[in-house]
């Protein structure tokens, strides 16, 4: 059996991959192989496969070929491959390549696909904050959402294509739920209940922390704030300082929304309609009765940071500069 864990992003995927990586030797004794090839630089996820599928029209690249060869030769009863980047293949123009890839794999082993669904407005918010946090985008949230209006339809059409392909023995669609118990639930679908209970002892869940409003506004407009305070700011040490609370701003908000109730409802209803049109019943069953966001709606802009906040930021930058400056040696 081969299980492809394909996302979505921001649904405890990284936490699951860390646990599976740490538990791999123990899983191997159970006949379960968390594939130790084709992983990313961190060594936990199999991102090389979807990256290759996105570049090619045929599933004949070196990464796909390596997995197919592995499945023909493996003695393991269950092999697991995990990458949330498969989502980009399923919703994009290379969907047919993914289906051909799965069809080829099914020649040597039954294939399961596991995907976690998240309510679309909540998913877009989480993805936007993460992308802005690490410097992958700089535009406003409204522009981000507008560019992804067709995303829901593409996702549900992709799931329909997987179901109809005839190559996937089982498509498992799970509801994402925040909380400490979700990781174990996800692992129980990727593995089984007994193995999930066993591997959870390895921990490995470093949840991505949601920053405050001002923290996110700072990271979205980092270049502007760097010029404003006249001192260099390195993004990833800054993220760590914000997450650890070493850098704080006055009158900040931890709980907030980027989208108002009406806009969220519009996205949500469009996703329900797209799922129904594709014959996918899970989305409405999982999220149809969910309340829409009620928190304060904010627009992330650097002008949220007051002069006092900028002074705190400059003090942090000065501290970081002095911390890295080599100590002067005493003269002999």
What does it look like?
- There is one protein chain.
- This protein has about 325 residues and is an alpha/beta fold.
- The protein has 16 helices and 5 strands.
- Strands 2-3-1-4-5 form a 5-stranded parallel sheet, sandwiched between helices.
- α8 runs parallel beside α14 and α9 packs across α10.
- The longest helix is centred in the C-terminal third of the chain and has 18 residues.
- It is globular, with a radius of gyration of 22 Å.
- The C terminus is likely disordered.
Strand content: 5-15%
> Over all CA atoms, what is the radius of gyration?
22 Å
Query: How many DSSP E strands?
Result: 5
> Distance between termini?
70 Å
Residue ranges: pLDDT <50 for 5 or more in a row? 328-332
Identify the overall geometry: globular
Mean pLDDT value:
92
Provide the spatial order of strands within the biggest beta sheet.
2-3-1-4-5
Order of helices and strands: EHEHHEHHEHHHEHHHHHHHH
Layout of helices and strands:
Blueprint: E1 2-5, H1 13-29, E2 32-34, H2 48-55, H3 62-73, E3 78-82, H4 86-91, H5 95-105, E4 111-117, H6 120-133, H7 141-146, H8 151-164, E5 170-175, H9 182-190, H10 193-199, H11 213-220, H12 222-229, H13 235-244, H14 261-277, H15 282-287, H16 307-324
Parallel strand pairs: 1-3, 1-4, 2-3, 4-5
Helix pairs in contact: 8-14, 9-10
Summarize the structure.
With 332 residues, this protein is of the alpha/beta class.
Supply the key terms.
alpha/beta; 5-stranded parallel beta sheet; 16 helices; 5 strands; 52% helix
